[in-house]
Amino acid sequence: MKRLFILSIDGVPYSLLTSLIDMGVMPFFKSLITEKGFRRYNSVLPTISSVAWASFMTGKNPGAHGIFGFIDRRPSPFKLYLPTGKNLRSKTLFEIVSDAGKRTISFNVPMTTPPRKVNGVMVSGFLSTKLHSAVHPPEIAQKLEYIGYIIDVDPSLALKDESTFWKQVYNALEGRKNAVKTFIGQEWDMFMLHIMETDRVNHFYIHNPEKLHSFYTELDHYIKGIFEYIPDDADVLLLSDHGFCSIEKEFYVNTYLSRKGLLKFKVEDPKSLNEMDSSTIAYSLIPGRIYLNLKGREEMGSIPQGDYNRVRNEIVDMLGELVDNGIIKRVWLKEELYSGPFLDEAPDIILEPFDGIDIKGDINRKELFGKSSIKGMHTLEDAFILWIGKELKGNNSFSIIDIASSILDELGVGRPPDMEASGCLA
Amino acid sequence: MNRNEGFVVWFTGLPSSGKSTLAQRLKDELIKRGFRVEVLDGDVVREHISRGLGFSKEDRDENIRRIYHVAYLLKRNGVVVITAAISPYREIRQEARELLKDFVEVYASCPVEKCIERDVKGMYKKALAGEIKNFTGIDDPYEPPENPEVICETDKETVEESVKKIINKLIEMGYIEPTDEDVYTEEEEEIIKKRLEDLGYI
Ligand SMILES: Nc1ncnc2c1ncn2[C@@H]1O[C@H](COP(=O)(O)OP(=O)(O)OP(=O)(O)O)[C@@H](O)[C@H]1O
Ligand SMILES: [Mg+2]
């Protein structure tokens, strides 16, 4: 049985890779490509790293793992909160592989905060603040500090102090490489290193070809450096969780709902959804998640249970004008996208964006459209996967939910019965 | 766990090791989560249920037996019981574990020197001066648990950290559900929020 090294590179689009390869920017990555092992494939809705990697780790859709965004809400009493791995209510690949008596090592995978007690090593990603609470087993924190491992770069630097931002990006990458060097000699069956820096860079520089090229040139050297540590007896899987594109404009759904009279606040200048009025019909969380203010579920519910379908259909009909006007691509009902024990927690309506129009949840915007300092947004259908030497199903014929089951197959570990995925290997 | 029943968090540790302090904080935390909670604190129990009992091994064991019987009745009626008595003897704690079944033993671990320094009730001073006899940690034995569910090193951890450890164990054992506050302190949450805002994620 071969072991598996997974290099996950957050937010790197398939289309960007192929165009950089054509320009000769990423020769090492190009040399890794085997014909049937390289594909463009789909992320999930909402297209967010936490949701996507949760789907990757569990082989389940959000309705079955419980993660729908970086922010979520408890309906009653109404409360906004930041989901973590504790809200990811499913076993992950790391535990499934551990339970089968195999050893896993992972660094920096989103939604592994707090670290789970796997057989092996788990170092949480950017939802952690301090190394000492981000690692399992606890005693490795010191070692990581010593080798210069940092959890994340400070993204605000990209706007305030660019040179420090880039320094941090390269330091973070270096620390992660040192971690591979330090831990690769241990026993393992599945080793996963997650690179977050690509997502950070894309958010601020996707519109800037010059900076992008020089970063991806470095990234190519970096990947080459990582490969020098990967033992010959390991298979290698590289993948991203979503694509990226430049933002033309942002669309503020809550402003739209307010204008339609569906979202009301108790105060003139609301600072948060906590100040919603009880007459509200619907509100939205980023990106494009719409919740009905349903009686019996929401703290100040206004829609009787019996009217749920009617009201939801009316809202969907109304949202049709956004589709007709080319503002959003498609309107989904939750049961069309999700299934499982946490379907109840899912947004009632989900908006699928067009590439280029970023759907936001701001509540204090006066206009429907605007801009911010963020330049790049995630795309659903342009993630990449390269499973060296394997034959994958065709482009865009599978999603990030389908990978876990194939990983387990390759490792000779049985799929748990509730893993819904159909696999990504041809 | 039978969902209609409670469970028992059983503290054990030297005098001044932190049992009562943690029991009270844990109680607040569990009440906040909607549980009915009763604390059986050694001092209070000795004033009422165990009035007249002394500090010989027999009396100490009898004291613990009374505590676990009361705990049993409460637990059976859906109450979460937190006990905070020294309970120095391993054997009787084992008896309690076997009867109660939903039993989470928490060792308030603290070096005796540190407990003497704390001397919350001034008893160590008296024991060291020979004014009282059979004082646990001075001239009476304390048998630390071999496999407690949780060890709180109260000389190294803050009260909050110790409580969090217990809560996390209760979540892991399936006695309580995780809430969003179980991962971050307020300060950490602010840091993460800022990071996500800077990325336009929230
Ligand atoms: N992590 C901690 N957990 C508990 N107590 C702590 C901790 N850190 C410091 N302390 C302090 O230690 C003291 C513990 O006293 P407490 O009365 O709780 O002990 P006790 O174990 O109940 O003693 P006794 O057996 O005499 O009743 C308190 O003053 C408390 O503030
Ligand atoms: Mg006490």
Strand-helix topology:
The complex is a heterodimer of chains A (426) and B (202).
Chain A: E1 3-9, H1 14-22, H2 27-32, E2 38-41, H3 49-58, H4 62-65, E3 72-74, E4 79-81, H5 93-99, E5 104-109, E6 120-124, E7 135-136, H6 140-146, H7 157-160, H8 162-183, E8 190-195, H9 197-205, H10 209-229, E9 234-239, E10 243-246, E11 249-252, H11 253-259, E12 282-285, E13 289-292, H12 308-324, E14 328-333, H13 334-337, E15 349-353, E16 357-360, E17 369-370, E18 376-379, E19 383-387, H14 403-411
Parallel strand pairs in A: 1-8, 1-9, 5-6, 5-8, 11-16
Antiparallel strand pairs in A: 2-19, 3-4, 6-7, 9-19, 10-18, 11-17, 12-13, 13-15, 14-15
Chain B: E1 8-12, H1 19-32, E2 37-41, H2 42-47, H3 57-76, E3 80-84, H4 90-100, E4 103-109, H5 112-118, H6 123-128, E5 150-153, H7 159-172, H8 186-198
Helix pairs in contact in B: 1-7, 3-4
The structure holds adenosine-5'-triphosphate and magnesium ion.
Please tell me the overall pLDDT of chain A: 96
What about the largest sheet of chain A? Answer: 8 strands, mixed
CATH names the topology of the largest domain in chain A as Alkaline Phosphatase, subunit A
Give Rg of chain B in angstroms.
19 Å
- CATH class call of the largest domain in chain A: Alpha Beta
Number of helices in the DSSP assignment of chain A: 14
Biggest interface goes to: A-B, 30 and 19 residues
Number of helices in the DSSP assignment of chain B: 8
In words, what does this structure look like?
The complex is a heterodimer of chains A (426) and B (202). With 426 residues, chain A is an alpha/beta fold. Chain A has two domains: 3-247 and 377-411, Alkaline Phosphatase, subunit A (3-Layer(aba) Sandwich), CATH 3.40.720.10; 249-370, Gyrase A, domain 2. In chain A, 32% of the residues lie in helices and 20% in strands. Chain A contains 14 helices and 19 strands. Chain A has helices at 14-22, 27-32, 49-58, 62-65, 93-99, 140-146, 157-160, 162-183, 197-205, 209-229, 253-259, 308-324, 334-337, 403-411, and strands at 3-9, 38-41, 72-74, 79-81, 104-109, 120-124, 135-136, 190-195, 234-239, 243-246, 249-252, 282-285, 289-292, 328-333, 349-353, 357-360, 369-370, 376-379, 383-387. In chain A, the strands form five sheets. An eight-stranded mixed sheet of chain A has the order 2-19-9-1-8-5-6-7, with helices on both faces. A four-stranded antiparallel sheet of chain A has the order 12-13-15-14. In chain A, a hairpin with a 4-residue loop joins strand 3 (72-74) and strand 4 (79-81). The mean pLDDT of chain A is 96. Chain B has 202 residues and is of the alpha/beta class. Helices cover 45% and strands 13% of the residues of chain B. A five-stranded parallel sheet of chain B has the order 2-3-1-4-5, with helices on both faces. The radius of gyration of chain B is 19 Å and the shape is globular. Chain B starts with 7 loop residues before the first strand and ends with a helix. The mean pLDDT of chain B is 93. At the A-B interface, loops of A face helix 8 of B. The site of magnesium ion (MG) has 6 residues of chain B, from helix 1 and helix 2.
